[in-house]
From TrEMBL:
Keywords annotated in UniProt: Flavoprotein, FMN
Pfam families linked to this entry: FMN_red
Name of the featured protein: NADPH-dependent FMN reductase-like domain-containing protein
Tree of life domain: Bacteria
Keyword Cell inner membrane: no
InterPro entries xref list: Flavoprotein-like_sf, FMN_Rdtase-like_dom, ISF_SsuE-like
GO molecular function, one term: oxidoreductase activity
Ranges of residues in domain NADPH-dependent FMN reductase-like: 1-133
The keyword Methyltransferase is assigned to this record: no
Length: 154
């Protein structure tokens, strides 16, 4: 089993990362392979709204968002973490969500998802809500490119 952890904080040693690394330790302790990515270390452009992905199932920009899609496709589960910024996810996480939006609407079920939001005083529930909308499932989530290939128009 493989789980992908995505830290949406620009601070790779921050609070969100600390929680995510604790989850990572527990998963590894249970014999689960874990891949950990800090969005702050990745090359990911803003979504340009070109709608290419709606037509083809693929993003026209070749950067780390595509790499993450592949990793998520291969994974059995995903852990998404974000700090609360102005009662929302971080800009990094929002870019990731925007870039994955169409892909994630093609979810296949039966993958696990954990969402984590850190914050100091208010708005973390709103952050969690954004993350949970993104994974958009009762109990499971996945980004699955092959599903898109089957459903996307030519
Ligand atoms: C730009 C910015 C906006 C923030 N907005 C909020 C907020 O609305 N509510 C809150 O509780 N904390 C807010 N915080 C605090 C962070 O959410 C909190 O410190 C978080 O745990 C930082 O996580 P990190 O160490 O992983 O980056 C904000 C911090 C920054 C830098």
């Amino acid at each position: 089993m493989q789980v992908l952890i995505i830290n949406g904080s620009p601070r790779k040693n921050g609070v969100t990362a600390a929680v995510l690394h604790r989850i990572e330790e527990n998963l590894r302790g249970a014999g689960i392979e874990v891949l950990f990515y800090n969005l702050g270390e990745m090359k990911m452009s803003h979504c340009t709204g070109c709608n290419y992905c709606y037509r083809t199932g693929y993003c026209c920009m070749e950067d780390d968002a595509e790499l993450l899609s592949k990793r998520i496709e291969e994974a059995d589960g995903i852990v998404l973490g974000s700090p609360t910024y102005a009662s929302n996810v971080s800009g990094l996480m929002k870019d990731f969500i925007d870039r994955g939006h169409f892909v994630i609407e093609q979810l296949l079920h039966k993958k696990y998802c954990i969402t984590v939001a850190s914050g100091e005083n208010y708005g973390s529930q709103d952050t969690l809500k954004v993350l949970k909308n993104f994974e958009s499932s009762e109990e499971s989530c996945v980004i699955f490119r092959r599903k898109i290939e089957r459903t996307a128009p030519n």
